[in-house]
Amino acid sequence: MRRKTRSCCFPSCRPPAGRWGLAALLALALLVLSGCGGGKEDSLRIGAALYTQDDTFISAMAQDLEGLVREAESETGKKITLFIADGKSSQSTQMDQVDRFLARGCDVLFVNLVDRTAAAVIADKAEAEGVPLVFFNRQPVAEDIQRWDGIYYVGADARESGELQGRLVLEAWQTDREALDRSGDGILQYVMLEGEPGHQDSLLRTEYSIKAVTDGGVEVEKLANETANWNRAQAAARTAQWLEEFGEGIEVIFSNNDDMALGAIDALADTPRDRWPLIVGVDATAPALEAVAAGQLYGTVHNDGRGQAQAMIALALALWNGEDPAVELTDGHYVWLPYRQVTLENLEEFLER
Ligand code: BGC
Description:
Blueprint: H1 21-33, H2 37-40, E1 43-50, H3 56-76, E2 79-86, H4 91-103, E3 108-111, H5 119-129, E4 133-136, H6 142-145, E5 151-156, H7 158-175, H8 177-180, E6 187-194, H9 200-215, E7 219-227, H10 232-246, E8 252-255, H11 258-270, E9 278-280, H12 286-293, E10 300-302, H13 305-320, E11 334-337, E12 340-342, H14 347-351
Parallel strand pairs: 1-2, 1-3, 3-4, 4-5, 5-11, 6-7, 6-8, 8-9
Antiparallel strand pairs: 10-12
The site of beta-D-glucopyranose has 13 residues, from helix 3.
């Protein structure tokens, strides 16, 4: 891999300025004599920047990363330090966090962008320091990923999740059309709860879920769509409005993720009715699996956050050791994890995880 090699010292090894004078020189001499080895050989430092920790899927991934780091430490016998920073949905905060990680001498960066268009700036900072960079969950455009050999993206194909979600609804229609087509007009009336505008998962899940249904020969009618920013409370508020406006006319609620599907369930639970619309989500978070078990959520699509975290740690270790990444790379930069449908039928398998 063509990657800039660092000069002897990591940024964190830089000699302290002025007042420590002699001590600094002695420390520097020791570092030079030891080939700067005190850092790199024994200890891997990873900086992980999250767009916000206040996101169910991302905070679960952060926990997975922490657990996997402990496992990797005991397997490799190496010390691995994982620094996690919460961007609190502010790109400028995340930029400062990335600068701090680089200044601390992190060996690898994991970045879950706040704003996907900020990727190029972060990529250039990492390249300037020769620090490999793994973007995850929020996918930068291809040109930004290809800026340097040391840039990777770990995620899942958003289009696939939309298709799988749409097929859940299509199969329900094909199996028991009468139950779904309450109005009996042969058309599937739906509302769509969308994730954050501009996020690849919002755009592609919205498009491909409906395409899967219409490709299956079912006519659809969109009653309403609105963003709820991946957020349960916002989704509950949108759904409450729609229930007032369309009442029993809503046959399906498509949701770009599980948290928003749970928001829709909250709104339905607040306004008791005989029949609920069919609701589908994406992620297979723990509370969503419970909702599937309770029969409130018809189905979801498993977004393998743990698998993504595993791939990121495997990449980090390989890059740090100067080995070929021990994961399957597409086009030299991408690691893709598959999605899977979850319904009552295979729920057990996911509950056991
Ligand atoms: C997940 C959402 C999450 C979003 C954050 C998506 O892949 O499905 O639940 O909020 O990523 O970027």
